[in-house]
Known about the structure:
Elements: E1 8-13, H1 14-24, H2 38-54, E2 58-64, H3 71-75, H4 88-103, E3 108-111, H5 116-128, E4 133-137, E5 152-155, E6 160-162, H6 164-171, H7 178-185, H8 200-210, H9 213-218, H10 231-240, H11 242-252, H12 274-284, H13 288-297
Parallel strand pairs: 1-2, 1-4, 2-3, 4-5
Antiparallel strand pairs: 5-6
Protein name: Exodeoxyribonuclease IX
InterPro entries: 5-3_exonucl_a-hlix_arch_N (IPR020046), 5-3_exonuclease (IPR002421), 5-3_exonuclease_C_sf (IPR036279), DNA_polI_H3TH (IPR020045), FEN (IPR038969), HhH2 (IPR008918), PIN-like_dom_sf (IPR029060)
GO molecular function, one term: 5'-flap endonuclease activity
Amino acid sequence: MDTMSRPAVHLIDGSLYVFRAWHSMPDEFHDADGHAVNAVHGFTRFLCELLERVKPEHLAVAFDASLTTSFRNAIYPAYKANRELPPPDLERQFVLCREVAEALGIPVLIDHTYEADDLIGSALWSLRGHGFRSVIVSADKDFGQLLGEFDEQWDYARNLRWGPAGVLEKLGVHPHQVADYLALCGDAVDNIPGVPGIGAKTAAALLSHFGSLDALLERVDEVPFLRIRGAASCAAKLREHADSARLYRQLTRIALDAPVAEQVEAMQRQRRDAAMMDELSERLRFGPLTRTRLKALLTY
């Protein structure tokens, strides 16, 4: 079965697009109680456009429940500690964004132990067994590790799409090496330091030669003989920080065993009552154009 003959499931990194809306939409939208809803309005427009453009039958939107309760925080307390917690106003809007998605009949994935990445990865893994190809709607480089032969990632804002070959082009490593790559060179966004002195190019070169982090650490005595800058120093750093590198990989590897429903039907868009959408639109004070778009999307 080739790529296009496989049914597609669109897996949306909801938190990313809520944050984007929060930063890009002017602070002039308020709900019936006077609370700011600029992120909700922006996220709703994004969902409307995606649904109108793609008309997906199978999809889900995943959200992060918290910055501090992931299993990664238990392993490494400094994980994402560099990020400020969302202000209460944005936390409230996250809840409303989930309401909008549910009112549109879009399955919502959220868990306090697993992050959105893990929920998307677990859904992808399960649906792949049912013959589906996945389209991950996100710009996050971490998702590269999930891309199989028939999958693709879609940076919606830039309208850029890529598959496994695109991961190699962007990072210099294959999808199955992405978690090892990030463990080596670090990920400042998630406060993962990586091995000191090993940058992105060196990490890619090492994985190109050794294939995996485990093989690299097992054969670290070979590193000084490689034709890379500072090879001897690199080998010393790897010996010193081997345990840390293995720990970081536990953080960078997307979990595939998060609690998501394994049935295909769980990722199918559901029909919803127009009255629910009317009430939500009134509460969020959506304009006439947005209300028309939302109602039209209920009759897909």
